[in-house]
Amino acid sequence: MAYEKELKQAIEASRLAGEKIIEIYQKDFDVHYKEDTSPVTSADIAANKVIINQLKIQFPKDGYLSEEMEDDQSRKTAERFWVIDPLDGTKEFVKRNGEFSVNIGLIDRGALVLGVVYLPVKDILYYAVKDQGAYCTRAGKTEQIHVSDRVGEYKLLISRSHPSLKTQQLIHSEKQSIQKIKEMGSSIKGCLIAQGDYDVYYNFGRSMKWDTCAVEIVVTEAGGIFRRLDGEPIDYMEDSKENDGFYILNHKDNGIDLESIKTK
Question: What is the DSSP letter of 251?
Answer without folding.
Answer: S
